Amino acid sequence: MNPILLILGALVLFYSVSLLVLMAGFARLKRAAARRSPAQNHVPSLSIVVAARNESHHLPRLLDCLFAQDYPAGKFEIIVVDDRSEDGSWDILQRAVREHPRFRALHVTDLLPDFAPKKRALDLGIRSASGEIILLTDADCSPPPTWARAMAGCYTGETNIVLGYSPYRFDQPVPFLVRRMLALDYLSLAAIAAASAGWGRPLTATGTNLSYRREEFLRTNGFEKIKHWVSGDDDLFVHRAAEDGWGRFSFATAPESFVPAAAPSSWRQFANQRARYASKGRDYDLRVTLGLLAVYLLNVSLVLGVVGVVGGMSAWALPVFLVWCAKSLFEFLFLVRVAFAFREQRLLFYFLPTALLHPWYVSIFGFAGLLGRFRWKGDDFRKTVEPRHVRNLQ
Length: 394
Prior knowledge:
This protein is of the alpha/beta class. The chain folds into two domains: 3-23 and 285-391, no CATH class; 28-276, Spore Coat Polysaccharide Biosynthesis Protein SpsA, Chain A (Alpha-Beta Complex). 49% of the residues lie in helices and 13% in strands. It is built from twelve helices and twelve strands. A seven-stranded mixed β-sheet has the order 3-2-1-4-7-5-8, sandwiched between helices. Strands 10-11-12 form a three-stranded antiparallel β-sheet. Strands 6-9 form a two-stranded parallel sheet. Helix 2 links the parallel strand 1 and strand 2. It is globular and about 70 Å long. The model is unreliable at 387-394 (pLDDT under 50).
């Protein structure tokens, strides 16, 4: 048999088995959530921490959402750290400080050569916080009033980190089909996070909806091990927490805990976001990196196979079609469980066009992530914030 076909078969077998393992992990997560019984007499104190840079157009909505949280007033505080904003964000925060006693605003005015801007802002906010539990979201998000209570309810005596889901919120006009496909793709990332959390080792996480115990953050010196990476205040941090023995992880599956996040409003924004996501892959645990490499090679192989068939290699048509069918079947079986659990089953109608495009954009953005160049909040970055890699565009 052709060795290339053997390799392709091995890759799709690995991918299919991996998805079966994730399905089992999600089932474990659901069973654990059903058994969970938080302490009835203890309401943990919370500190909601947000890092914001040039977010004047998003901050009013975010602050309204945070001030409307259905949580005991004496048990939570809100801290927003302004990271070098130039658009009036600081003025908005100052007005909020005067009007709301539970609100604090901190201001970062410079860059450090070895500390990623967002991580530094979050670190400052977390270290100045007083709550037992840190709740993180982004400035372009709109947490529902039930968010803080739902996330706090996921903590038992042994739980130290709770991950959450952030469905896309579309503020700009986007073609309907594209909107649904983007939402399904984003759901797939949350599905991987939830399913792997069921095994006690989350593969990914999102900073738009994440929480952990403050004492554990301080005990392990926070972002110290990953502070030079521009991205990764969520997934890389969770990986390091697992390595440092933080204990039990959980994932909030109740819709009351979901935090809508602004979707990319342009192709350039989407490309930069995905390149930023992919840029961290080489700093993951070696086993995770090798697994991601296998998945990447599978997608690249499918793309090259399609190109070969179009170029006249008709013998490749059936193997490529069968591999794509197997890949898509196991993806659907995995996603259907999560979609129904998260009440996102309407997105499954758009699975087919998303599955057709998936190998192409994984191949493109995986390569872009290796290059490590992307733009974030007005600055051009590579993967790390070494001085030669940062150029302030202000």
